[in-house]
């Protein structure tokens, strides 16, 4: 393993993205979310993603110098046209207006359109929660997941993320795929020649399958939680697709046209300002939420993201460690 | 079984509620949602609930003539103080302002406070979707459900409901508990002396239990979908509790103080206006949503609520049927 300080990790990612041809603004914004993933122990959203950014650019599937355009769509809606660039810069561009609208009106939405998306949603949700907002985020991906009772892929892994501000503490944040498992986990089982647990996927007749080849190549992945997870995945398609005038997971997969590039579509964020709901009583009611968290942690259950926050504390002290092979693959991109 | 026309069913419910002492406005609003439940084949939210309304009033746990107060909280927030009455009239009172704010600003929230709640959320969601809005609803209940990894009840059955408008068709609507199963289903197993499937509940040490007595009396129910369902249940507590200045499921259960009355707390609804997101392209993007629905139904999978809509079509033709014993119990309340 190679150890890097967070600052070195950021410089490495940024220099590779610049060298590949991304604009300075994109290289900086993308590096920040990639280093956040690595820092928080989410290797699947960490430095390894730099390789995907470069290959997506080489495949002509992302605009290296896209200028996000911020549109004041309605009193409580901001729209950002990412113009074919990665989502991070578009989110940054829309964030101030989203916050202003939520502060002014109590609730507001940010629709990001035409972005290439690979970022974990918690990175964005955390920024909103740290700024005092309750926040939700949704995005489709590529159609890999069948609806409950079906056998053909319709949904993406369609994550749902939520954040709640906790004064003086890390916010309460969750961010989960509505698929039973990440596609990458099934890929890992395939490479290792292992079967997968029941519940992850079906064959082309809709029968449960434990063969990763069948699930990935001919059948489909499943949602978590049966028909309830399937309903949530449908909701994500609708509100982060047609509602914002952007692609569904099926349309995004068709757009990729066989390339391994990141999904291209939209994202919906919703921000709610507790101070507009609660006025002078805000602090008192946020304290009642702490009682709820205590009743969960007090019985030995964990809050989501705690593992991430623990990894973060370690990384801030010790830096991050990445496999030597990955380090060399990254360095090779600077040649 | 006794057969009733929908009109007779409504008159029966209404006359009982009036006789029990509810104001005409409450009797009419509550009867409408109860008959909607019976009509759609949801007996658990049907005429049987009239008994619970009357017993809740006799227990002093609902205000029979509460006047909901509508408060223009912020440009995109309506608040309705239900003043201790059932939720239905409060929802009705707040609905026009919610719709106006969503139409004007693109997204708006309705917070209902201090209501006694037993209504299915789809009744409300459907009204918003029929009026052209995308809608979400959340409410806590009584603390019966343990967090993932825990063994003590913290959450209610905490439903999440969603609606999407489909021009010329019934809207796409789902409404599900974030608990693995309704509490009533576990009660039915207890009465029948049957064990319950694994995954519905745990004992007081957090071990899986198939004994309904253990789960109901000493252990706790579980959420659907493991840690993901548990995260959603937490979100419902937060956004339909502290965010709107109202009780959590634990506080609501404490308020009931051993009585079997309906939960007393708040509800959060969010309405989004597709026309403010999409402008002139609205119809084109709603048509793309229909392609998504076709890709689900075309492979033999069902959309949520289809069973309800089928039951509704039958009930509109043939009326509803209720058990004779229930009919006599209801009639007895008019004596």
Automatic annotation (TrEMBL), chains A, B:
Source organism, top-level taxon: Bacteria
The answer on whether this UniProt entry bears the keyword Metal-binding reads no
Q: Which Pfam families match?
A: Ldh_2 (PF02615)
Q: Which UniProt keywords apply?
A: Oxidoreductase
Q: Has UniProt tagged this entry with the keyword Plastid?
A: no
Task: Report the leader peptide range.
Answer: none
PANTHER family attached here? Answer: MALATE DEHYDROGENASE (PTHR11091:SF0), OXIDOREDUCTASE-RELATED (PTHR11091)
Family assignment from sequence similarity: Belongs to the LDH2/MDH2 oxidoreductase family.
- What is the name attached to this protein's record? Ldh family oxidoreductase
The record lists the organism as Pseudomonas fontis
């Amino acid at each position: 393993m190679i150890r890097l300080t967070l600052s070195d990790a950021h410089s490495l990612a940024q220099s590779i993205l610049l060298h590949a041809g991304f604009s300075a603004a994109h290289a900086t914004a993308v590096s920040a979310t990639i280093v956040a993933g690595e820092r928080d122990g989410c290797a699947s959203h960490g430095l390894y993603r730099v390789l995907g950014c470069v290959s997506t650019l080489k495949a002509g599937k992302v605009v290296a110098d896209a200028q996000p355009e911020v549109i004041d769509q309605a009193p409580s809606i901001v729209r950002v046209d990412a113009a074919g660039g990665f989502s991070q810069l578009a989110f940054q561009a829309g964030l101030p207006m989203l916050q202003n609208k939520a502060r002014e009106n109590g609730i507001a939405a940010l629709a990001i359109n035409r972005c290439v998306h690979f970022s974990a949603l918690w990175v964005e949700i955390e920024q909103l929660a740290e700024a005092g907002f309750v926040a939700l985020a949704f995005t489709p991906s590529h159609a890999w997941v069948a609806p409950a009772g079906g056998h053909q892929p319709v949904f993406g892994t369609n994550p749902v993320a939520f954040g709640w501000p906790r004064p003086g503490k890390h916010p309460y944040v969750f961010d989960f795929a509505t698929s039973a498992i990440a596609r990458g986990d099934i890929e890992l089982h395939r490479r290792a020649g292992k079967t997968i647990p029941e519940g992850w996927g079906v064959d082309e007749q809709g029968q449960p399958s434990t063969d990763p080849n069948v699930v990935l190549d001919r059948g489909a992945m499943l949602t978590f939680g049966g028909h309830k997870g399937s309903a949530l995945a449908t909701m994500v398609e609708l509100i982060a697709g047609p509602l914002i005038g952007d692609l569904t997971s099926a349309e995004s997969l068709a757009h990729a046209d066989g390339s391994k590039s990141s999904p291209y579509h939209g994202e919906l964020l919703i921000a709610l300002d507790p101070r507009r709901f609660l006025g002078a009583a805000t602090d008192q009611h946020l304290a009642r939420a702490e009682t709820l968290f205590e009743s969960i942690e007090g019985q030995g259950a964990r809050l989501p993201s705690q593992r991430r926050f623990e990894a973060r504390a370690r990384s801030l002290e010790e830096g991050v460690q990445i496999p030597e092979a990955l380090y060399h693959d990254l360095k090779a991109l600077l040649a």
